[in-house]
Amino acid sequence: MASTSRAARSQTVNLSQTSASQHVTEVDDKVRGILNYILDHSAEKIPIKEKDLLATVGDRKEVVRRLPLVINLLSTRFGILFKPIDATSKTFICTAETPMASIYELTPTQRPQYTLLYLTLMYIFMRGNRIEDTKLYGMLEMLNICVDKEHGYFGPNIRKLIEETFIRQQYLKRERSVLSAYDDSKIYFLWGLRAKAEITYEQMVQFASKLFNMNPIQFDAHLKMATDMDAPKD
Protein backbone atom coordinates (compact mmCIF):
# COMPACT_ATOMS: atom_id res chain seq x y z
CA MET A 1 0.00 0.00 0.00
CA ALA A 2 1.23 3.50 -0.73
CA SER A 3 1.95 5.57 2.35
CA THR A 4 -0.74 8.03 3.41
CA SER A 5 1.20 9.57 6.30
CA ARG A 6 0.99 13.32 6.43
CA ALA A 7 3.94 13.66 8.83
CA ALA A 8 6.41 14.15 6.01
CA ARG A 9 4.39 16.78 4.19
CA SER A 10 5.98 20.20 4.23
CA GLN A 11 4.47 22.65 6.69
CA THR A 12 4.49 26.37 5.97
CA VAL A 13 4.73 28.59 9.02
CA ASN A 14 3.32 32.09 8.71
CA LEU A 15 6.12 34.26 10.02
CA SER A 16 4.20 37.48 9.50
CA GLN A 17 6.03 40.18 7.54
CA THR A 18 9.51 39.32 8.79
CA SER A 19 11.94 38.83 5.92
CA ALA A 20 14.38 35.93 5.74
CA SER A 21 17.29 38.32 6.26
CA GLN A 22 15.94 39.20 9.71
CA HIS A 23 15.74 35.62 10.91
CA VAL A 24 18.18 34.67 13.67
CA THR A 25 20.67 32.04 12.52
CA GLU A 26 22.75 31.57 15.68
CA VAL A 27 21.58 29.96 18.92
CA ASP A 28 21.23 32.59 21.65
CA ASP A 29 19.57 32.67 25.07
CA LYS A 30 16.19 33.52 23.55
CA VAL A 31 16.38 30.58 21.14
CA ARG A 32 17.27 28.32 24.09
CA GLY A 33 14.36 29.73 26.06
CA ILE A 34 11.86 29.02 23.27
CA LEU A 35 13.32 25.53 22.74
CA ASN A 36 13.15 24.70 26.45
CA TYR A 37 9.56 25.88 26.70
CA ILE A 38 8.46 23.77 23.72
CA LEU A 39 10.36 20.68 24.91
CA ASP A 40 8.97 21.03 28.45
CA HIS A 41 5.40 21.14 27.11
CA SER A 42 5.63 18.78 24.13
CA ALA A 43 4.94 15.67 26.22
CA GLU A 44 1.56 17.09 27.27
CA LYS A 45 0.51 17.11 23.59
CA ILE A 46 -1.47 20.30 24.22
CA PRO A 47 -1.28 22.96 21.48
CA ILE A 48 1.21 25.75 22.15
CA LYS A 49 0.12 29.29 21.34
CA GLU A 50 2.46 31.92 20.00
CA LYS A 51 1.60 34.10 22.99
CA ASP A 52 2.80 31.29 25.30
CA LEU A 53 6.29 31.79 23.86
CA LEU A 54 6.31 35.52 24.56
CA ALA A 55 7.12 34.94 28.23
CA THR A 56 10.44 33.38 27.19
CA VAL A 57 11.39 36.25 24.86
CA GLY A 58 9.21 39.21 25.78
CA ASP A 59 8.46 40.43 22.27
CA ARG A 60 6.51 38.87 19.41
CA LYS A 61 8.96 40.08 16.78
CA GLU A 62 11.78 38.33 18.62
CA VAL A 63 9.74 35.10 18.67
CA VAL A 64 9.02 35.37 14.94
CA ARG A 65 12.69 36.03 14.13
CA ARG A 66 13.75 32.88 15.99
CA LEU A 67 11.01 30.43 15.02
CA PRO A 68 12.65 29.19 11.78
CA LEU A 69 15.83 28.28 13.67
CA VAL A 70 13.84 26.76 16.54
CA ILE A 71 11.77 24.66 14.12
CA ASN A 72 14.93 23.43 12.40
CA LEU A 73 16.59 22.51 15.71
CA LEU A 74 13.50 20.67 16.94
CA SER A 75 13.49 18.59 13.77
CA THR A 76 17.20 17.87 13.38
CA ARG A 77 18.13 17.39 17.04
CA PHE A 78 14.96 16.04 18.62
CA GLY A 79 12.92 14.53 15.78
CA ILE A 80 9.99 16.84 16.59
CA LEU A 81 7.86 18.59 13.98
CA PHE A 82 6.54 21.95 15.24
CA LYS A 83 3.77 23.16 12.97
CA PRO A 84 0.70 25.41 12.97
CA ILE A 85 -2.77 23.93 13.28
CA ASP A 86 -3.71 25.65 10.02
CA ALA A 87 -2.20 28.06 7.50
CA THR A 88 -3.25 31.20 9.39
CA SER A 89 -2.97 29.89 12.94
CA LYS A 90 -0.72 31.20 15.71
CA THR A 91 -1.26 27.93 17.57
CA PHE A 92 1.18 25.05 17.07
CA ILE A 93 1.45 21.35 17.87
CA CYS A 94 4.46 19.09 18.29
CA THR A 95 4.41 15.74 16.53
CA ALA A 96 7.04 13.04 16.17
CA GLU A 97 8.83 12.78 12.83
CA THR A 98 8.79 8.98 13.18
CA PRO A 99 5.34 7.51 13.96
CA MET A 100 5.04 5.16 16.93
CA ALA A 101 5.87 1.64 15.73
CA SER A 102 4.37 -0.29 18.64
CA ILE A 103 2.11 0.26 21.60
CA TYR A 104 4.91 -1.22 23.70
CA GLU A 105 6.82 2.03 23.23
CA LEU A 106 4.33 3.47 25.72
CA THR A 107 4.27 3.27 29.49
CA PRO A 108 1.69 0.99 31.16
CA THR A 109 -0.26 4.12 32.15
CA GLN A 110 -0.36 5.38 28.55
CA ARG A 111 -1.40 2.11 26.90
CA PRO A 112 -5.09 2.14 27.91
CA GLN A 113 -5.52 5.68 26.56
CA TYR A 114 -3.86 4.82 23.25
CA THR A 115 -5.87 1.62 22.92
CA LEU A 116 -9.07 3.62 23.37
CA LEU A 117 -7.75 6.22 20.91
CA TYR A 118 -6.99 3.53 18.31
CA LEU A 119 -10.45 1.99 18.73
CA THR A 120 -12.00 5.43 18.26
CA LEU A 121 -9.89 6.36 15.23
CA MET A 122 -10.41 2.94 13.68
CA TYR A 123 -14.19 3.24 13.85
CA ILE A 124 -14.12 6.77 12.41
CA PHE A 125 -11.86 5.49 9.61
CA MET A 126 -14.20 2.58 8.85
CA ARG A 127 -17.25 4.85 8.73
CA GLY A 128 -15.88 7.24 6.13
CA ASN A 129 -13.75 9.40 8.44
CA ARG A 130 -16.77 11.07 10.04
CA ILE A 131 -19.01 9.50 12.68
CA GLU A 132 -21.85 10.70 14.87
CA ASP A 133 -20.97 10.63 18.57
CA THR A 134 -23.90 8.40 19.52
CA LYS A 135 -22.86 5.79 16.95
CA LEU A 136 -19.29 5.84 18.24
CA TYR A 137 -20.49 5.31 21.80
CA GLY A 138 -22.85 2.56 20.61
CA MET A 139 -19.90 0.73 19.03
CA LEU A 140 -17.91 1.03 22.26
CA GLU A 141 -20.84 -0.35 24.25
CA MET A 142 -20.85 -3.40 21.99
CA LEU A 143 -17.27 -3.93 23.24
CA ASN A 144 -18.53 -3.54 26.85
CA ILE A 145 -17.03 -0.05 27.10
CA CYS A 146 -19.61 2.34 28.54
CA VAL A 147 -18.34 5.91 28.32
CA ASP A 148 -20.15 6.91 31.52
CA LYS A 149 -18.99 3.98 33.67
CA GLU A 150 -15.60 3.04 35.06
CA HIS A 151 -13.91 0.32 33.03
CA GLY A 152 -11.51 -2.28 34.41
CA TYR A 153 -8.85 -1.48 31.78
CA PHE A 154 -9.66 2.02 30.52
CA GLY A 155 -10.53 3.37 33.93
CA PRO A 156 -12.99 6.22 34.74
CA ASN A 157 -13.73 9.34 32.70
CA ILE A 158 -13.89 7.63 29.29
CA ARG A 159 -16.27 10.26 27.95
CA LYS A 160 -13.93 13.01 29.18
CA LEU A 161 -10.99 11.33 27.44
CA ILE A 162 -12.84 11.31 24.12
CA GLU A 163 -14.70 14.61 24.31
CA GLU A 164 -12.04 16.71 26.03
CA THR A 165 -8.55 15.18 26.16
CA PHE A 166 -8.39 13.76 22.62
CA ILE A 167 -9.98 16.94 21.25
CA ARG A 168 -7.55 19.21 23.13
CA GLN A 169 -4.60 17.09 21.99
CA GLN A 170 -5.82 17.39 18.36
CA TYR A 171 -6.26 13.63 17.94
CA LEU A 172 -9.96 14.22 17.32
CA LYS A 173 -11.85 17.04 15.70
CA ARG A 174 -15.46 17.73 16.67
CA GLU A 175 -18.07 19.18 14.34
CA ARG A 176 -21.61 20.27 15.12
CA SER A 177 -24.23 19.90 12.42
CA VAL A 178 -27.77 21.31 12.30
CA LEU A 179 -29.90 20.26 9.33
CA SER A 180 -32.63 22.81 10.00
CA ALA A 181 -34.09 25.04 12.70
CA TYR A 182 -36.50 22.22 13.57
CA ASP A 183 -33.79 19.60 14.15
CA ASP A 184 -31.57 19.01 17.14
CA SER A 185 -27.88 19.51 16.46
CA LYS A 186 -25.69 16.45 15.99
CA ILE A 187 -22.08 16.03 17.02
CA TYR A 188 -19.61 14.31 14.70
CA PHE A 189 -16.05 13.18 15.30
CA LEU A 190 -13.27 13.25 12.68
CA TRP A 191 -9.54 12.59 12.75
CA GLY A 192 -7.67 15.59 14.13
CA LEU A 193 -4.45 17.14 12.89
CA ARG A 194 -2.25 15.19 15.33
CA ALA A 195 -3.85 11.87 14.37
CA LYS A 196 -3.19 12.58 10.69
CA ALA A 197 0.41 13.52 11.46
CA GLU A 198 1.27 10.63 13.78
CA ILE A 199 -0.88 7.75 12.51
CA THR A 200 -1.28 6.38 9.01
CA TYR A 201 -4.38 4.84 7.51
CA GLU A 202 -2.28 1.72 6.84
CA GLN A 203 -1.74 1.41 10.61
CA MET A 204 -5.51 1.54 11.05
CA VAL A 205 -5.90 -1.23 8.47
CA GLN A 206 -3.36 -3.39 10.30
CA PHE A 207 -5.04 -2.68 13.64
CA ALA A 208 -8.52 -3.49 12.30
CA SER A 209 -7.37 -6.65 10.50
CA LYS A 210 -5.82 -8.00 13.72
CA LEU A 211 -8.81 -6.98 15.84
CA PHE A 212 -11.33 -8.63 13.50
CA ASN A 213 -9.01 -11.39 12.27
CA MET A 214 -9.50 -10.30 8.66
CA ASN A 215 -7.20 -9.99 5.65
CA PRO A 216 -5.97 -6.37 5.25
CA ILE A 217 -7.06 -6.51 1.59
CA GLN A 218 -10.67 -6.49 2.81
CA PHE A 219 -10.13 -2.91 4.01
CA ASP A 220 -8.92 -1.57 0.66
CA ALA A 221 -12.24 0.23 0.05
CA HIS A 222 -11.98 1.99 3.41
CA LEU A 223 -8.38 2.94 2.72
CA LYS A 224 -9.25 4.41 -0.68
CA MET A 225 -12.20 6.34 0.77
CA ALA A 226 -10.12 7.84 3.59
CA THR A 227 -7.26 8.72 1.25
CA ASP A 228 -9.63 10.32 -1.27
CA MET A 229 -11.24 12.43 1.46
CA ASP A 230 -7.84 13.80 2.47
CA ALA A 231 -6.74 14.53 -1.10
CA PRO A 232 -6.40 18.26 -1.90
CA LYS A 233 -9.47 19.66 -3.59
CA ASP A 234 -9.12 21.57 -6.86
Which key terms come to mind for this protein?
234 residues, three-stranded antiparallel β-sheet, 46% helix, Arc Repressor Mutant, subunit A, disordered N terminus, 9 helices, 6 strands, alpha+beta
Structure described in brief:
By secondary structure, this protein is an alpha+beta fold. The chain is 46% helix and 12% strand.
Could you characterize what this model shows?
The structure is a single chain. By secondary structure, the protein is an alpha+beta fold. The protein has two domains: 20-96, Orthogonal Bundle (Arc Repressor Mutant, subunit A), CATH 1.10.10.1200; 103-230, Orthogonal Bundle (Arc Repressor Mutant, subunit A), CATH 1.10.10. It is 46% helix and 12% strand. The protein has nine helices and six strands, in the order αβααββαβααββααα. The chain has helices at 29-42, 50-57, 60-78, 110-126, 133-142, 158-168, 193-198, 201-212, 220-230, and strands spanning 48-49, 80-84, 91-96, 131-132, 172-177, 186-191. The protein has a three-stranded antiparallel sheet. A hairpin with a 6-residue loop joins strand 2 (80-84) and strand 3. Helix 1 (29-42) packs across helix 3 (60-78) and helix 4 (110-126) packs across helix 8 (201-212). The longest helix is centred in the N-terminal third of the chain and has 19 residues, at 60-78. The chain is globular, with a radius of gyration of 20 Å. It starts with 28 loop residues before the first helix and ends with a helix. The model is unreliable at 1-18 (pLDDT under 50).
